[in-house]
Request: fold
Amino acid sequence: MPKYLVEASYTADGLKGLHKDKASGRHKVLSAAAEAMGGKVESFHFALGEHDVVAIVEVPDISSIAAICMAASSSGLVRTRTTALMTVEETDRALGLKTVYRAPGK
Reply:
């Protein structure tokens, strides 16, 4: 099942909500959302720096993770950034594929 790196940053009002829900509450919300899509949260961490939350989420497809992240972002209390992750085997498979791409000016 595909995995996605989800990085989230709270707005000031979102941080107020975090104080109310607690970190464990937000973890439960994301876990429930992933499970409703047939997936799971593999890891969930709060962070200091550019992003407040970093999570690895496993869901069946890109539409599922997009639905979760769009729902979160549409609240106006959190902004998400999502990166599709590839396994070593998927990367090796991609490296073995031939393409017709040509570098600019070559």
